[in-house]
Amino acid sequence: MNTKKQNNPKKSNNHRSNPVRIVRKQLKLTQAELAERLSVEPNYISMIETGQRAITKNIAVKLHDISPPGTRLEWILGNDKYQNDTEESAAMDAAFAASLPEIEKYGEAQMMIIKKAAQAAGFNFEIRKTDKTACYCFTDSNGADVELNVDSMLEMISDISDYAAFRVNRTIKKKYNQSRVKIEM
After folding, report:
1. Quick one: angle between helices 42-49 and 31-38, nearest 10?
2. Which of 87, 149, 153, 181 is the most exposed place for a label (fewest CB within 10 A)?
């Protein structure tokens, strides 16, 4: 007979990141002290922290009530990856900042060209933060928004650059041909 203990498929190998454990540590409580405050057995807290048991909504609400200010109930329940709004905001800021270099590499001058072209077409142009990245927003005179993601914006910048290169080439060739005619005369 096999006496080896079988692994519980629900058991988490990363119990140090368990929300119950994190909140308990933030409150500087032992498992027994937290269990007493939540009116549960200490071994229940241990089982939740090690992933052997899932936290119930009732216990999560009780824990939420004694958690540090700003702690999200959904995070305690395991349905949100951010403990509080500050963490989420920092993650959004990082994602936004990470998306800007792709656009910024084209430079301020091209952004000004896009802004002027948008205005000539009757739109206001601005860069806004969204959940995960930057949003390039064009607003018409009625307040309706058209939002472009990074890929669409890069495509527009590429199109504008191609057209600008065409115009520069055409203008230079025209001027070059005019100067050649003057010299040959």
Report:
1. 110
2. 181
- What is the C-alpha separation between 130 and 97, in angstroms, rounded? 11
Q: Could you report the per-residue pLDDT of 32-49, keeping only the tens digit for each?
A: 999 999 999 999 999 999
**Are 45 and 59 within 8 A, CB to CB?**
no
- Collapsing DSSP to helix, strand or coil, 125 comes out as strand
**Neighbour-count burial of 84, counting CB atoms closer than 10 A to its CB (0-12 exposed, 13-18 middle, 19+ buried):** middle
- Taking only the tens place, the pLDDT of each residue in 71-114 is 888 889 888 777 877 776 676 666 666 656 655 665 666 777 77
Greatest Cα pair distance in the chain: 107
Q: Which amino acid is at 84?
A: N
Output the pLDDT for position 32: 95
Give the percent of the chain with pLDDT over 70: 72
- What CATH number should be reported for the domain whose range is 15-83? 1.10.260.40
The sign of the CA dihedral 144, 149, 155, 156 is positive
Quote the strand ranges of the chain, DSSP E.
123-129, 134-140, 145-148
d(CA 167, CA 172): 8
Angle between helices 150-184 and 107-120 (to 10 degrees): 90
